[in-house]
Amino acid sequence: MSAGRALNQLNFDNSYARLPESWFERRQVQSLQHSHLIAFCPEVARQLDLDPCRISPEELVQYCTGVQAWPGVEPLAMKYTGHQFGVYNPDLGDGRGLLLGEVVNSRGERYDLHLKGAGQTAFSRFGDGRAVLRSSIREYLAGEAMAGLGIPTTRALCLLGSEEHTLRNGMEPCAMLLRVTPCHIRFGHFEYFFYSGQHDELKRLADYCLQRFFPQFLDAEQPCAAMYREVVERTAKLAAAWQAYGFVHGVLNTDNMSLIGETFDYGPYTFLDQYEPDHVANKNDHQARYAFHKQPSILLWNLAALAQAMLPLVEREQLEAELDRFQGLYEAAYLERMKARLGLQSVDAGDQRLVDQLQAILVEQRIDHNRFLRALTEWQPGHAASDRELLAFVERPEALQAWLQQYRLRARQEVASEPIRRQQMRSVNPRFILRNYMAEEVIREAHQGDYRPLHDLLPLLRHSGDVHPGFEHYAGPRPQWAQSIYLTCSS
Ligand code: AMP
Ligand code: MG
Q: In this structure, which residue's CA is closest to atom 7 in ligand 1?
């Protein structure tokens, strides 16, 4: 393993900046006054071949805020469009973020560096091009929490604060987030070329994506169809992961859909405190279009929008056949996730029913299912105190008691010993879930200039299955005051 690099030694190779100029706007970062580094992620640094110990906070801030030119960077704002709340909007694009460039690491992996909050671009419409501290902290935390749960996600190299303010819910401090992911191509990139009638460019975009994200299909009989098939599969698996962990994205517009199936563009997201299928994370979503239980069908809708945009590339029948696979793929992936959470590896004809029955109990009794599944992980059947702990999750115990009995019989079929099963269950049943009240507390203190609560929370999210002495209260139910937290698109 080669020694890690410093920031000015990153191996930039900016393939997107070599595409036609009409695909983006070249734009420099608009400097952000009096900025400082709030947090950086050593794991993401290593993905970029950076040595975390060689990252100078001053240098990182100067590079991100455009005070000093970052060697190898070629900032640009991408053009894309998309369907927002079901309606096509041709006027989208990076309105407050810039793709700084792409870093290729020693393993040949390519990562986009995208600076969110970098100032106005040609696609800002009426926006100021800025991101505020509140939403930037929420996106930073979300990336770490999802990565900790093993759910595909974008992450960030760092989070910057500033003394500059802008108007949102009153005046709020500005911030920047340096997002890192292999892919910033959204479903909306395809929609842009399709709806503007640029079908040659659409073909070129598909070729670019094949080369870059899906090279395994370049020699396929129909590479674009194979790519679409893969996108359907990844998206179905992503939906299953969200539903298994009670994650509500909040704004599932097609411009927020990553082509590689990562959770992308965090806004008013929520991890459910109680299992409420009709929970809506974004208070501006008056139609409840993006309610928790609708997410799989909305992702299917979004995949259909992508299929529409790919009609010049792939036969309609083929796209429809791939879309028809979604529901089966989703259900299989969901069952797999839930079985893992229940510590069941072997196959039994009754497994689907067992999961369905548990789900019915979760819904009926509005259970905090992440806490429940963790308690189930530690359950000692027959020990009165342990039984009581589980039954305390419900008001009417009969259905749960019957289910627990079935579950216990089913678990006996497993080959793995009880301690091994428990260990496996611990790895997928977190003690700590990023609840909105935790983010609110972190934000409240950050607004006072205290970032310690943020730094205290990060290890809990990154190692969410471990015991964290001194922070066990975060493993408990949400406090009463948290019921009134109010989230909107405003960011
Ligand atoms: P979002 O709701 O964050 O997915 O953003 C939807 C669209 O609005 C994207 O094209 C963003 O770039 C743009 N946008 C959001 N906030 C701002 C802002 N403060 N300034 C300029 N454009 C913005
Ligand atoms: Mg977005």
A: 92
